[in-house]
Amino acid sequence: MKHYLNPNKWVDSYADYLYRYALSRVNSDELAEDLVQETFLSGIKGSSNFQGNSNERTWLTAILKRKIIDYYRKKSSVKEFSLDQTDERFGKQGMMNDHWLDNKAPKDWQLNAQDQIENDEFKAILQACIRHLPEKWASCFILRVMDEMKGEEVCKELNITSSNMWVMLHRARLQLRDCVEKSWFK
Amino acid sequence: MDTKGKMMITCKEATYLISKREQDVLSFAERLQLKFHLMMCKYCRRFAEQVHFLNDAILKMKQKVEDQEDGIQLSKQSKDLLRSKIAEAQN
Predict the structure, then answer these.
(1) What is the DSSP code string of B76-90?
(2) Are A170 and B44 inside 8 Å of each other by CB?
(3) A162 within domain boundaries
(4) CB atoms within 10 A of CB A70
(5) ipTM of the complex in this document
(6) Chain B residues with CB inside 8 Å of A176's CB?
(7) What are the backbone dihedrals phi and psi of residue A106, each rounded to the nearest 5 degrees, phi first?
(8) Ranges of each domain in chain B
(9) What is the full DSSP assignment across A2-16?
């Protein structure tokens, strides 16, 4: 089937979807709105590139995705992160050096995984925790985990080394886990 | 991080490998180091289980959030603004 673009219907058909897509990947409502607007405007400008092979929504989502990558790329004044940096979660000396401190270590969540994943309140907390990741680690996490981009692509887009990417992803995970534990598994 | 040649790794190193394992294949040596560490470390076992659970939850949630018809919506005001911008851009 050949698809056609009809910009006059975009707002009614796709604005909410694109807004939610953006909102789950950036940490401000305003920015998400701006990204949706830019997506529509780029869509109109680039409408001659539309081949009609994919549907409008897929095409617009691809544009938005690109905008989000660009946003993070501009943002990332990347420093080199290393695992050697001190981390308050782990001990600093003697036998306990670099091992979990009892009061910072993962608590028992008594996971009943399926139940929790389906729980709306849990989902809201998880989303909030993702949105509140510090931006310096969020870029990597969003592109790699949320957008399922390949490692090499993420490194290329953000201009970072792969070991730096792994450390950033790891920092994001530590942070995310702490946040979910504090907010949900009290 | 370089854990080459070490039999015993720290929790800091183990958690890093656990994170990495979610998205990449560990080397044979790394797998052994991690396995050995997890046998002895309750906290890292929890960490591994939880990180995996969160990843799973994120993937499932992602799809749902976007497709949710009754989910978050743009305000009417914002939509009107978008409409006028689109109209303007087409002229």
Answers:
(1) HHHHHHHHHHHHHHH
(2) no
(3) yes
(4) 13
(5) 0.84
(6) 54
(7) -55, 130
(8) 1-68
(9) -----GGGHHHHHHH
pLDDT tens-digit readout, B38-89: 999 999 999 999 999 999 889 888 777 667 766 788 999 999 999 999 999 9
B33 neighbors B7 (Cβ within 8 angstroms): yes
Are B22 and B10 contacting, i.e. CB atoms less than 8 angstroms apart?
no
Instruction: Report the C-alpha gap between A81 and A66 in whole angstroms.
Output: 25
Domain that holds residue A169: 94-183
Half-sphere exposure of A61 (CA within 13 A, CB side): 17
d(CA B47, CA B10): 14
Smallest Cβ–Cβ distance between B90 and the set A11, A44, A109 belongs to A44
Residue A172 within any structural domain of the chain: yes
Same domain, A55 and A26: yes
Select from A111, A163, A174 the Cβ nearest to the Cβ of B49: A111
Residue B14: phi and psi, rounded to 5, are -65, -45
Is residue A103 one of the residues assigned to a domain? yes
B10 closest CB neighbour out of A99, A111, A173 = A99
In this predicted model, what pLDDT tens digit does every residue of B63-76 receive, in sequence order?
776 677 667 889 99
Whether A82 maps to a domain, the answer reads no
Assess contact for A108 and B50: CB atoms under 8 A: no
pLDDT at B37: 97
Residue A126 CA to residue B57 CA, distance in Å, equals: 8
Name the domain count of chain A.
2
B71–A contact, CB cutoff 8 A: yes
